[in-house]
């Protein structure tokens, strides 16, 4: 079965592999797991984005955790902020368990960040993003 081109592609950058297994298993039941690509740290996400040559291959959304090993979400946002073409094409949602107002303020200063969401995200939210055919 090929991927439905009307569905949105999501990159999820989060070091919580157990949560990702749960999301994938639920999305698999709905035949949507191919649309969720997981990286355990922001450096892996950046490397993936650097390899993309065609605009059609870019993800529609990035769901980004803040606190991870190797490279955290804050450094990812600083890097992403310099990539004009990506900022115009990809929406970023910060998904974190941090309830610090300072973290929220730092993140929301970036115009390309659409929302600051608390984890865990509902799988209904992920399904809604993937199936969002009227953008």
How would you sum up this structure, described in words?
With 135 residues, the chain is an alpha/beta fold. 40% of the residues lie in helices and 18% in strands. It has six helices and five strands, in the order βαβαβααβαβα. A five-stranded parallel sheet has the order 2-1-3-4-5. The longest helix has 13 residues, at 17-29. The mean pLDDT is 90.
Chain-wise SSE layout:
Elements: E1 10-13, H1 17-29, E2 36-39, H2 42-51, E3 61-64, H3 73-81, H4 84-89, E4 91-96, H5 101-108, E5 113-118, H6 123-130
Parallel strand pairs: 1-2, 1-3, 3-4, 4-5
Write a short abstract of this structure.
The protein is built from six helices and five strands, in the order E-H-E-H-E-H-H-E-H-E-H. It is an alpha/beta fold and about 140 residues long.
Name some characteristics of this structure:
5-stranded parallel beta sheet, single chain, 135 residues, alpha/beta
The main sheet orders its strands as 2-1-3-4-5
| Assembly type | single chain
Distance separating the two termini: 24 Å
Large-scale geometry = globular
Main beta sheet strand tally, sense and closure: 5 strands, parallel
Arithmetic mean pLDDT: 90
Strand content: 15-25%
N-to-C series of helices and strands: EHEHEHHEHEH
Task: Report the radius of gyration as a whole number of Å.
Answer: 14 Å
Regions with little confidence, pLDDT below 50 for 5+ residues: none
Structural class per helix/strand content? alpha/beta
Helix content: 40-55%
Tally the helices: 6
Beta strands, count: 5
